[in-house]
Specification:
The complex is a heterodimer of chains A (103) and B (175). Chain A has 103 residues and is mainly α. Helices cover 45% and strands 10% of the residues of chain A. Chain A has one domain. In chain A, helix 1 packs across helix 5. In chain B, helix 2 links the parallel strand 1 and strand 2. The chains are: A mainly alpha (103), B alpha/beta (175). At the A-B interface, helix 3, helix 4 and helix 5 of A face helix 2 and helix 5 of B.
Chain lengths: 103, 175
């Protein structure tokens, strides 16, 4: 398992850059990963990240549809917050594993 | 020697997909969803996505039919009853069976967070995917643009669709 120092903390990370231990995650770490992805995080971003972390912790499937139904942001807004590949990008920044869902 | 290693390196080089053009020509639940899942999956990966609906695939973008698609219960050897017993073709022809099986399939998909067709199309376009209808098939089925789902970008000839499919690292997928 690879390790990486983010915001002064050493975290476990996969080759693709996903953290493997959600407990090591902090907001500071999120900001640093986001910077690598070219993003400046706002409160809206953090609301989405919290939602994803919560669902992941419950063992639920992370789908783009569930984010759209979260009441935080609609799907278009989600693509706007995390441009390109929103689900993967948001999961990476949220410190959770790469999403395994096809929808 | 040096040339061989150069060629070997070239063959290992990866060229990620930049654009996919997906064609859906059939109107059963499974054919339409195959096209929609692949399209939405591409959009989610940040791949430019254009979907072209033609022939019976037009049912998936026609307001009247899009959320009421059926699966064929006759002539499908892969069809199984709940529990895995093969589904007798004779049974598939009975009135109401096709509608019942189709409703069951739709409810199973809903459980997996797979949305109805109209919502799925909205997800695709929300992420920047584009939906097109085939002009020839529209003429054949006597459909007007106003019969189609509002998110359809345009009605195109096959030539116009190909014009949109140009560029490197682009694939055309016929589902």
């Amino acid at each position: 398992m690879a390790q990486k120092t983010l915001a002064g903390v050493t975290v476990d990370i996969t080759d693709e850059g996903y953290m493997t231990n959600p407990l090591q995650w902090t907001k500071e770490i999120a900001k640093e990963i986001a910077k690598e992805e070219g993003l400046e995080l706002t409160d809206k971003h953090f609301a989405v990240l919290d939602f994803l972390r919560e669902r992941q912790q419950k063992g639920e499937n992370l789908t783009i549809r569930s984010v759209g139904n979260s009441g935080i942001v609609d799907i278009k807004g989600f693509y706007g917050l995390f441009p390109g590949a929103p689900m993967k990008k948001a999961a990476k920044i949220a410190g959770i594993p790469k999403p395994a869902s096809c929808v | 020697m040096r040339l061989t290693s150069k060629i070997q390196n070239m063959s290992k080089e990866e060229f990620p997909l930049k654009k996919v053009c997906i064609i859906c020509a059939k109107g059963t639940i499974e054919d339409v969803y195959a096209a929609l899942v692949m399209s939405n999956g591409a959009v989610m990966e940040g791949i430019e996505t254009k979907v072209f609906f033609t022939f019976f695939g037009l049912d998936a973008i026609t307001k009247k039919t899009m959320d009421k698609l059926h699966t064929g219960t006759v002539g499908n050897p892969a069809m199984r009853m709940p529990g895995g017993i093969p589904f007798p073709t004779m049974l598939g022809g009975l009135p109401g069976v096709e509608a019942g099986v189709s409703a069951m399939m739709r409810s199973q998909m809903e459980k997996l967070d797979i949305p109805p067709v109209s919502e799925f199309l909205e997800m695709i376009t929300a992420g920047g995917g584009e939906i097109y209808a085939c002009k020839l098939a529209m003429d054949m089925f006597k459909l007007e643009k106003s019969d189609l789902w509002d998110g359809v970008s345009a009605v195109l000839t096959v030539g116009e669709f190909y014009e949109k499919c140009g560029g490197l690292q682009t694939q055309i997928i016929f589902t």
